[in-house]
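Lecture notes, part 5. Sequence design as translation. It can be helpful to think of inverse folding as translation between two languages: the language of shapes and the language of residues. The source text, in structure tokens, appears below.
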């Protein structure tokens, strides 16, 4: 298989090609958040997602948010729902409709960092409660079958606490 090939497997599968529960997580930084003046109950939030080399997110959705993404640096693998996987480069954009399942979001490089700007539109009350409870990670709803693997990695990142 070429380096751009992929397979989607459960976290316990042998030799997964791209989705790896032990892969580093990206960092998430809220750049801005505003209430939208032309809608009574929605806010817009800009989130910079920085993928270290080989980093990825587990399969996830975004609590019903509409999300527009632009690649800022590097390149990323992207697979939505059952669509074919693509490679997005600097300046490319992605739209995640509400309920869209982001199956693969990963840095294509094991040497260089990649970053994206993810712009969320979501009900203000929901956005506020998610961020208050879990910080920017609250905007990422990890698929149920991956939650155990993610919890284990988070525990290790927190020093086994």
């Amino acid at each position: 298989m070429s380096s751009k090939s992929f397979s989607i497997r459960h976290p316990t599968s042998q030799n997964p090609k791209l989705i790896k529960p032990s892969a580093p997580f990206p960092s998430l930084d809220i750049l801005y958040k505003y209430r939208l003046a032309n809608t009574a109950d929605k806010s817009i939030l800009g989130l910079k997602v920085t993928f270290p080399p080989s980093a990825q997110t587990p399969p996830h959705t975004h609590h019903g948010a509409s999300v527009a993404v632009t690649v800022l640096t590097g390149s990323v693998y992207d697979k939505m729902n059952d669509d074919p996987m693509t490679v997005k480069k600097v300046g490319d954009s992605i739209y995640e409709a509400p309920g869209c399942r982001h199956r693969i979001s990963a840095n294509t490089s094991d040497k260089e960092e990649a970053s994206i700007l993810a712009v969320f539109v979501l009900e203000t009350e929901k956005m506020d409660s998610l961020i208050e409870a879990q910080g920017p990670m609250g905007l990422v709803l990890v698929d149920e079958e991956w939650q155990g693997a993610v919890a284990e990695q988070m525990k290790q990142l927190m020093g086994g606490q």
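The translated text above is only one of many valid answers, since several sequences can fold into similar shapes. The chain has two helices and eleven strands.
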